[in-house]
UniProtKB/TrEMBL annotation:
The keyword Repeat belongs to this UniProt entry's keyword annotation: no
GO molecular function: UDP-glucose 4-epimerase activity
Protein's UniProt name: UDP-glucose 4-epimerase
Quaternary structure, from the entry: Homodimer.
Span of the signal peptide: none
Family, as annotated: Belongs to the NAD(P)-dependent epimerase/dehydratase family.
SUPFAM superfamilies documented for this protein: NAD(P)-binding Rossmann-fold domains
A GO biological process held by the record: galactose catabolic process via UDP-galactose, Leloir pathway
Gene designation per UniProt: galE
InterPro entries associated with the record: Epimerase_deHydtase, NAD(P)-bd_dom_sf, UDP_G4E
Amino acid sequence: MPPQPTILIVGGAGYIGSHVNKELTRRGYRTLVLDNLATGHRDLVRWGEFLLADMNFADQLRLIFRTHRIDAVMHFAAFSLVGESVTDPQKYYQNNVAGTLTLLQAMHEAGVRRFIFSSTCATYGIPTTIPIPEDHPQAPISPYGRAKLMVENVLADYDAAYDMRYVSLRYFNAAGADPDAECGERHDPESHLIPLVLAAAAGRREAITIFGNDYDTPDGTCIRDYIHVLDLADAHILALEKLLQGGGSCVYNLGFGQGHSVREVIETARRVTGREIPVIQGYRRSGDPAQLCGDASRAVSELGWQPSRSDLEYIVRTAWNWHKTDWTRE
Ligand code: UDP
């Protein structure tokens, strides 16, 4: 029997990468997790082999590709704070663009030609149609979104020139956690809505601030498309299998297609946790579109993706379970 494929997970000590690592392992793949632990966590790498290395250093990558037989690379290693990318674009272009080019160069030299890339709905900018299809114009409004779009463009050129096959997955709002609470979201500082709402529910923060209540939405707060991290993990594995079976390069939206407002998220968290959640009404956060919802029908029809865990209540319940477990480790 041929050996199971080996997948290099770059940034596998982070939120989404750690869930994909668990799922790949469960399905019998061999995983190598490369992470510099800048934002990742060593204790989230509970499966596969851990390689403490930095994709920005070509020598480290060359050594890894020389000493391991790697069938495909999944790339999660990126800074992902939109606001920070505006104040410190160098950090984003250096790591998210230049670092990715260094990784692609090492793959190219080693003859590894299958690549799964974590892209984002932030490449679309302000949507002109909702839900957003993949062929919506890409006009990002932040260095974060521009850096991701640059890599998407690089990948299209590498496909044409070097037969590098890739799948770019444009995530909407990744949320929720492993129902066994073996991995989950842990950012420092935290800026995402659901972990902050749950921290307020636990009394670890005084309140949650709602950024703006005068948007053109039914309750005035922003609407986002929350997608469970395990549904994302499924899509990564389907995309990987497409490439391993000789499929061509492609781009997919990964969203649930059903938006929820900030107020709905808070109400759901009140219900799930049974706790008071104090709210402060704040100003709009700059760069926030009123509504972001993805049309993921292409991933459904072409990959056979069936997001089944992205009900908001389940997302919040698994996140709450994870955070409660994680807080006891502090
Ligand atoms: N949000 C909020 N208060 C917070 C954090 C976020 O009202 O403390 C809102 C934010 O304006 C956005 C939504 O929650 O409309 C989701 O924000 P998040 O940062 O989680 O993800 P993003 O949509 O920016 O990727």
